[in-house]
Amino acid sequence: MNVLDENIITPERERLRAWRVHFRRIGVEVGRFGIDDREKIIPLLHSLRRPTFFTGDQGFYHPMLRPHGYCLVYLDVDFDETADFIRRFLRHPAFRTQAQRMGKVVRVRHSGVTYWQVGEQGERWIGW
Question: Which of 49, 47, 46 is nearest to 67 (CA)?
Fold first, then answer.
């Protein structure tokens, strides 16, 4: 299940819908509106079945947040590029399946993808 933070703007969500990328949004289909900090969102993600959480909040990109049953994706791109990079990330050969994404804290950028993974030391980088 793909979960979008409330900071992902409406036009970008509409683009994802047009591309048939299925998602739920914090404050609408999942949780309540106004949940905007890690202390409240992380427990919410634990209650969902294997979610991939997309956000523009840099605070979610930290190795201590390496999850076992979900994936955190920090979109380090302009707000009007988020749909393109969500789609690009979900199509990347290293992250295409839900199983490949689990246990990772990811930063998506123009230059590529960096991530920390459960059970591994150090940050890894993969190009597009």
Answer: 46
Hey, what are 72's tokens?
């955190």
pLDDT at 21: 97
Q: What angle do CA 63, 100, 24 make, to 5 degrees?
A: 85
The token duo for 89 is: 């990330």
Which pLDDT band holds residue 39 (cuts at 50, 70, 90)?
Answer: low
Domain ranges in the chain are 2-126
Predicted TM-score (pTM) of the model is: 0.91
Q: How far apart are CA 57 and CA 36, in angstroms?
A: 9
In the structure encoding, which two tokens stand for residue 9, read together? 């703007």
CA angle, corner 76, sides to 75 and 78, nearest 5? Answer: 95
CA distance 75 to 106: 8
Which of 33, 85, 28, 32 has the alpha carbon at shortest distance from 56?
85
Expressed in angstroms, the distance from the first to the final Cα of the chain is 23
